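Can you give me the bound-state structure? Components:
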Amino acid sequence: MELTRRDFIKLSGAGLGTAAIAKLGFTMPALAGTEPLRITKAKETNGVCSFCAVGCGTLVSNETGEHGQIVNVEGNPDCAINFGTLCSKGAAISQKTYIDGKPNKERLTKPLYRAPNSSSWKEISWDEAIDKIANRIKETRDANWIAEDDALDAAGNPTGGKVPALRTEAIGALGSAELSNEGSYLYQKFMRSLGVVYIEHHARL
Amino acid sequence: MSIVIESEELGVQGVRRAVKRYVEMYPEMTDVIEMYGAIMELQQETLGKVTCDVSLDAKMAEAKLSEGTPLIDPYELDIDAERFRALVFDIARIVDEKSPEGFPHRVEIEKWEGLEPGNVPVTRDLVIAGEELEIGVAWESSEDIKLVSNITWEALAPSYMKCGRMHESLIEQSLWQRGACPVCGTRPLMGVFRKEDGLWLLECALCHTRWNVQRARCPFCDEGEQGSLEYLYVGDDRSHRVQYCSACRSYVKTVDMRDSDLDAVLPLEDIATIRLDKVAAKEGLRPAGSRL
Ligand code: SF4
Ligand SMILES: [Zn+2]
Ligand SMILES: [Zn+2]
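Here's the bound-state model for the whole set.
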């Protein structure tokens, strides 16, 4: 008696519930099917709250259709981290996108650049933003590269020799609570490959 | 995470309280709720008298669930023929007395040979499989024959409920997560988002065991992972939903109990939300597990 998701074991009989109500002559407005009804269709999607490092599972309900608005966010009961709960920040997370049904004007959707000494921001493309960041990292790293350190003996005194250091102390890295374990691993790996030694994470709960 | 779900015992008094509550909430459905409530009272009385001769331990249950097999074979269960027969008569009487059109074959059903002890297993098999019953030519309308099948289903329920209540504590829910009942393999009657945490539980249409399925995936087909599960609701009442799958077109009504003080009694909830079945049918959906 193998039972897969698709294949019920042919138990399709029914009790006297809804199937038999009309047959028995009961009348009610719902049965006539003539009431005007406003129907909303929506869909739940699994998500992860991005506000802190707990990483609570969320269920986000969107109206279906191309521009379906978020109609509800709740804790995912199937998530072993939060068992269906959310704190007040997580419960309000849809406000990142919509406030009172209108798009949140404070939400950044494009990189912004403020030139040195300027008081205003201007929109730039992702390519431009990434190039700028890469250039700054390269310049800072090159200008502050520590290639070698003095060698020390067991008591901590200089021996007069040198040992490779291969690091920069001019860049610091602050990880994000919005990163998963895997994302955090890649982030620190990338930073170490640049010779960054000040690597921190903001997993404060 | 380990999840075990055990039902609260309803009992005759529990049914009466529930009927009162549902009649207050849905006064336009008083007649039908009271009729079904009377049937549920009989089922609860019988539940206290029937036995379940299936005996399983936790290990056997785990092995069965892990291989995708429900705990009991619904076609093998021993039915107490005398009690079953008496319950069919009683339910037929209630339907006759409490429904507007009555049940015209109430007397004939007492002579129906499908209820003779030797024929009970065959009748049972036909009813739970949803196959047409063989009844004498005097019963011309196939609608009437279906009604006999519906009545018979309700009379079978206590035997299955007994097995469900006996074995539900052995079910580690994470081993199952399917669209059919882990006790008897039947399709769900309705679903509920559990009051404490919103966990989605389905309730078996036959043995009324509740089991857990994941919230954002269709439990009825293999497309479930692809985000095919959607839902619809009427007006602003998001707590009564039709959860449906855009791939397999199955649906199951679900009531969200998180804002409620009391638990839903799903056989009554099912009747009270018949409007949603109408809407679902208009949308081209079919009850999960029903025949195409
Ligand atoms: S604890 Fe609150 S902020 Fe942190 S992940 Fe959970 S819901 Fe989000
Ligand atoms: Zn069952
Ligand atoms: Zn499906």
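A couple of observations. Chain A is about 20% helix and 30% strand. Chain A touches chain B through 54 residues (CB under 8 Å).
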